[in-house]
Amino acid sequence: MAGLKQRYSGIAILLHWTLALLLLFQLGLGWSLEDLPKSSLFVAFQFHKSVGILILVLSLARLLTRLFVARPPAEGAPALKLLASVVHWGLYGVMILGPITGWIIVSTARVKLPTLLFGTIPLPHLPLGAAWNEPAETIHGLIGWLLAGLFVLHVAGALRHHLLRDDLIGRMMPAAVSQRPALSIAMVVALAACVSAFFAGSWRYKGHAEVPKPSAPLPTPGSTPELPAAPAPTPEASASPEPTPSPSASATDAAMPVRSWKVAPGGTLAFRTVYSGETINGRFARWTADIQFSPDDLAHSKIAVDIDLASVSSGDSERDDTLKGDDFFGVAAHPKARFTAARIRKQGSGYVADGTLALAGATKPMPVSFTLKIDGDHAQASGTATVKRLAFGVGKGQWSDPSTIPDAIAVTFRFAADAK
């Protein structure tokens, strides 16, 4: 038994070096988050949270190992032993408190984004109030600097022992490399691995292209202000169209047969809602429409619109990724929404298309109101609709509370079209 206590246990050695690499990776990633492009922030934060919880679990396992598994006795002068003990327990505090404060920040943030650990395991929010957020952020930031300082002291102590040739560091190395000269090589490899882990965290998510955000707020339902141009259409999916100048003449008096209309590039399909008192304006960049229409033959007119849900843009890349996730649109299983209407009726100065919307695996009736101006082979359309998101299962779990996000979502559109 005495011989065994001259070295740390195998589980202690494994946890020590695993945590060392994870902590340095996490430190590098955490310090680089503010400099990352918006397009990669959500994924980087998700991974940062996942690694943090992994560090928390392994740190608790390491603490239990220290408390209940025999280890070599401390050696050296009393002052140095005290300093080593302070550094060791400081590292335990940092390894445990760092992830916990991060968890508190996520749980008390104004926008509570869901966390899937390594894209698989849901992490619940802690039942804490918003008052915890600011202190947790302050402590979390200080912990990064404290970790760096403690790590430097820990490495300096190990190097001091090695240079004095007492080789205490060998107790935390595998038996095969616990003696010189193999120990010296192992220390160089370990230091190189630690430095590499730090820079791997710093550079993992850099270099991603920035996704442009909408340049202006969206219109309120029923209004027809001038809208900024949407992204240009791709060959696979035509983008929404840009409005052409208002026609100078109304539709001709002659009866018009049902004609096919091709949506012109540049229009807008948008939505508006409120989250915790904040207005959220969004749009879909890619959608296509198959329109067969005549104001003189509504009985044979019909409309079909396909929307690429992955093209959603709300001005925040983290929020957009959340909207694409399973709690909202679930684009992995249901990449498109589809509106179809074969019953169109006149109402006042405009029209109503009584159709159905297929969204997120559910299909429900939905009327769409619109106005239309036709001048020969050119037409302009604009309109509104209201989508009851909860009927489609859009916004599950913590997002299902209509006092946080209203059930009714206002949808507006505006486009130009040409007769084929």
Report on this model:
This protein is of the alpha+beta class and 420 residues long. 35% of the residues lie in helices and 24% in strands. It contains six helices and 13 strands. It has an eight-stranded antiparallel β-barrel. Helix 1 packs parallel to helix 5 and helix 3 runs antiparallel to helix 4. The chain is elongated and about 100 Å long. The termini are far apart.
Keywords:
two-stranded antiparallel sheet; elongated; 420 residues; alpha+beta; 6 helices; single chain
Q: Strand arrangement, largest sheet?
A: 3-6-7-9-10-11-12-13
What's the total count of β strands? 13
| Distance from first to last alpha carbon | 90 Å
Identify low-pLDDT runs. 208-253
- Level of helix content? 25-40%
Structural class: alpha+beta
Q: What percentage of the residues does DSSP assign to strands (E)?
A: 15-25%
Q: Categorize the overall geometry.
A: elongated
The mean pLDDT is 81
The profile of the biggest β sheet is:
8 strands, antiparallel, barrel
**Helix and strand element order:** HHHEEHHEEEEEEHEEEEE
Number of helices: 6
In short:
The protein has 420 residues and is of the alpha+beta class.
Helix-strand layout with pairing:
Layout: H1 10-32, H2 38-68, H3 78-108, E1 115-117, E2 121-123, H4 133-163, H5 182-203, E3 259-263, E4 268-275, E5 278-284, E6 287-293, E7 302-308, E8 312-313, H6 317-324, E9 336-347, E10 350-359, E11 362-375, E12 378-388, E13 408-419
Antiparallel strand pairs: 1-2, 3-6, 3-13, 4-5, 4-13, 5-8, 6-7, 7-9, 9-10, 10-11, 11-12, 12-13
